[in-house]
Amino acid sequence: MSHFIGGSAPAMVRQITEGYTLINAVMLKRFTVGELDTLKFEIEKKIRDLRSEQIDLRETLAVQLKNRRLSRLEGALRIIRASRNNKSRGRG
């Protein structure tokens, strides 16, 4: 059974990106190492896509929105990496 919110890793990444889902270490305890790797891959892919988006720098709101999305994804990625490291060491 998948533990991804929304049914799949890409759907969960979309929810994280838009701010509907917040990731924390307790939530990730039920994920397997393979599921964490899949989620990590999808987040890294979404970060690459967001960084490649060209926006007009004079549009302050668009710049802020892009930066907020990147910040959410990078924070989630940091938590996933820590959780992944703990699981591989046998701590979680």
Ordered list of secondary-structure elements with their pairings:
Layout: H1 9-18, H2 25-28, H3 33-52, H4 60-88
Helix pairs in contact: 1-3, 1-4, 3-4
Name the descriptors.
single chain, 92 residues, mainly alpha, 4 helices, 68% helix, 0% strand, elongated
Number of strands: 0
General shape: elongated
For the termini, the CA-CA separation is 19 Å
What percent of residues are in strands?
under 5%
Percentage of helical residues? 55-70%
What would you say this structure looks like, in words?
With 92 residues, the protein is an all-alpha fold. The protein is 68% helix and 0% strand. It has helices at 9-18, 25-28, 33-52, 60-88. Helix 1 crosses helix 3 (33-52), helix 1 (9-18) crosses helix 4 (60-88) and helix 3 (33-52) runs antiparallel to helix 4 (60-88).
What does this entry show, briefly?
This protein is mainly alpha-helical.
